[in-house]
C-alpha cells in the first residue's frame, strides 16, 4: 500500500500508558481492581470522562460525577480530581525517533482526547506535550479544544480533511481498541499499541520505512 499519512494518538502511544499508575493508585487506596478503567469504559460516550474531555463540564462537576459513577459501578467512590494526575506518562524515545523518520516521508497527525487546559491535573497530564515532539505533527486535534472526542468518527474525518488525504492511505495508532474501530471502518490501517517495539515493527511493515 502507498501510505500518505501516519496518525498517532498521544497518551499511551507516544508516552507510556497511565494504566500502571491507575493500578498502583487502586492498590494503595484499597479500591477494587480496575475500578478506574471500568468507570471510564462504562457508558464511554456520555460518562463524566467523556464530558470532561469535550470540555462540557468543569473540574468540580467531573470530580463529583466520576465519584458517583464509580460508586454505582463498583461500590467505591473514587475522586475524579485525584485520578487526573495519574494521566502523566513518560515519552517513549523510540517512538519519537520513529515519528521523526516518518515525517521525512509522510504527512503526520495527532488525535488526542485530552483535558481542558485549566483543569487541575491537566498540567501534569499535558506536560508530555513537549513542544519539540508536537512540532513533528503536521496537524494536531485536541478533544477539549473542539468539543469532540474519539471514538466519534467525525474526529478522524477532520484529520484526514486537514491533511488532505484519503483514509485508505493512512495508518492510525492508538492504545485503545474502541478508538481504533472507527478508524478501521473508515478504511485506515490500524495498529494497537502494546509496546514501543511492537508498534514500531508494525509501522515498519505498514509503511515500508526503516524506523529505528
TrEMBL record:
The keyword Acetylation applies. CDD domains: HAD_sEH-N_like (cd02603). Keywords: Acetylation, Hydrolase. GO terms for molecular function: hydrolase activity. The keyword Transport does not apply. This is HAD-IA family hydrolase. It comes from Bradyrhizobium aeschynomenes. The lineage of its organism: Bacteria, Pseudomonadati, Pseudomonadota, Alphaproteobacteria, Hyphomicrobiales.
Amino acid at each position: 500500500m502507498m501510505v500518505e499519512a501516519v496518525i498517532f494518538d498521544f497518551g499511551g502511544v507516544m508516552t507510556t500508558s497511565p494504566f500502571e499508575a491507575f493500578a498502583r493508585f487502586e492498590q494503595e487506596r484499597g479500591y477494587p481492581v480496575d475500578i478506574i478503567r471500568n468507570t471510564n469504559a462504562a457508558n464511554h460516550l456520555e460518562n463524566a470522562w467523556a464530558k470532561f474531555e469535550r470540555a462540557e463540564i468543569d473540574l468540580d462537576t467531573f470530580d463529583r460525577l466520576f465519584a458517583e459513577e464509580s460508586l454505582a459501578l463498583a461500590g467505591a467512590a473514587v475522586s475524579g480530581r485525584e485520578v487526573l494526575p495519574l494521566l502523566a506518562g513518560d515519552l517513549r524515545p523510540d517512538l519519537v525517533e520513529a515519528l521523526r523518520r516518518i515525517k521525512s516521508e509522510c504527512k503526520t497527525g495527532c488525535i488526542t482526547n485530552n483535558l481542558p487546559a485549566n483543569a487541575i491535573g491537566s498540567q501534569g497530564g499535558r506536560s508530555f506535550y513537549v513542544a519539540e515532539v508536537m512540532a513533528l505533527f503536521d496537524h494536531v486535534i485536541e478533544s477539549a479544544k473542539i468539543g469532540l472526542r474519539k471514538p466519534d468518527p467525525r474526529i478522524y474525518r477532520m484529520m484526514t480533511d486537514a491533511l488532505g488525504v484519503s483514509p485508505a492511505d493512512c495508518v492510525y495508532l492508538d492504545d485503545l481498541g474502541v478508538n481504533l474501530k472507527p478508524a478501521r471502518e473508515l478504511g485506515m490501517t490500524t495498529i494497537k499499541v502494546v509496546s514501543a517495539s511492537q508498534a514500531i515493527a508494525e509501522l515498519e511493515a505498514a509503511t515500508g520505512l526503516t524506523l529505528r
